[in-house]
Amino acid sequence: MPSPTITSKITFIGAGQMAEAMIGGLLSGQVCSAESIWATDPVAERRDRLKSQFGIRVGPSNREAVAWADVVVLAVKPQTIPAVLSELGPTLAHALVISIVAGVTIRTIAEQIAGAMRVVRAMPNTPALVREGMTSLAMGAGVSDDDVRLVRTIFQAVGLVVLVEERMMDAVTGLSGSGPAYVFQAIEALADGGVMMGLPRQTAELLAAQTVLGAARLVLESGVHPAQLKDRVASPGGTTIAGLHQLEQGGFRATLMAAVEAATTRSKELGR
Length: 272
Fold this sequence. Notes:
The protein is an alpha/beta fold. It contains twelve helices and eight strands.
């Protein structure tokens, strides 16, 4: 078996779906070993699940797990983060701290860690569960080049990674953080349209999901602007342009833009 890519000890505070996805990606990609991961959660069922599934160390004590770690991933709900930071505070000062908590700024976290600035704010999304996530990273002032490489390696285990300025993180949340839900709804609607036109439900859902997956891959791999790809499908007087006309009449593009705007605004509210 190849040696792990990283040897740093990683603690996850919170053992929800995203922590599970990250741990699964780190281990399946042989980025690190099970012995170098510790996860805490107040719910024993969640701890037992991760221990059984991955063979990692688990426990209820945040302080003990933080003291052991080189890297601490804060993976709790936004409403829980004040209590977590109040509990841990300066005990986090020795570690590289990665927060995947929506709406919580680097400054908010750093102020609770005696001013330490080895803090990274990350926004992954749920396709990380199948190693197709999109993660945006914003770096605190004290993060070194080695830290950046380490954090990129961690998140590349579950998908693609981009670096952004922190001021853009609310917009990132509105687009890629919340975006999978918009796409799920679009897939559901496409499938419903197929059923309405007589297709069996299972067939319609497969056609819709694979169409979205293939179209996304074509955008990423071709480097061609989505508008140009759309035009290539829309023949004069054909079926596609008729469908596109209905989307325009329904305000499809404006509605998606407004959804990103609304989610961005909500992310800003959560961070206050």
